[in-house]
Design a protein that fits this description.
By secondary structure, the protein is mostly beta strands. 0% of the residues lie in helices and 60% in strands. It has no helices and eleven strands.
């Protein structure tokens, strides 16, 4: 299994930036790709971005150009750089690891004030 711990959330004004981190431990070699998702109150979880073990990235159209996913293999950490944040980006952000196992972190709250 893979343990995931997110950090970096917080309160930010509209137009601001945040960088989220997702630190992975455990069966790292079993991971094919990792992704960032978010869930706002009363809404379904939505996909934001993913990055493969080889570094290929893919974004949902709603965040492409504003959010950037990256990884540091030496730290077993995946990042989500979020720029030009909007109030509608307010949600709990979680990372997932997919491969031999499917694992989720507990998430980190992002609140964007207008």
């Amino acid at each position: 299994q893979v343990r995931l711990v997110e950090s970096g959330g917080g309160l930010v004004q509209a137009g601001g930036s945040l960088r989220l981190s997702c630190a992975a431990s455990g069966s790292i070699s079993s991971i094919n790709y990792m992704g960032w998702y978010r869930q706002a109150p009363g809404k379904q979880r939505e996909f934001l971005a993913r990055i493969s073990s080889g570094g290929s990235t893919y974004y949902d159209a709603s965040v492409k150009g504003r959010f950037t996913i990256s990884r540091d293999n030496t730290q077993n950490t995946v990042y989500l750089q979020m720029n030009n944040l909007r109030p509608e980006d307010t949600a709990r952000y979680s990372c997932g690891a997919f491969g031999l196992y499917t694992n989720w972190g507990q998430g980190t709250q992002v609140t964007v004030s207008s």
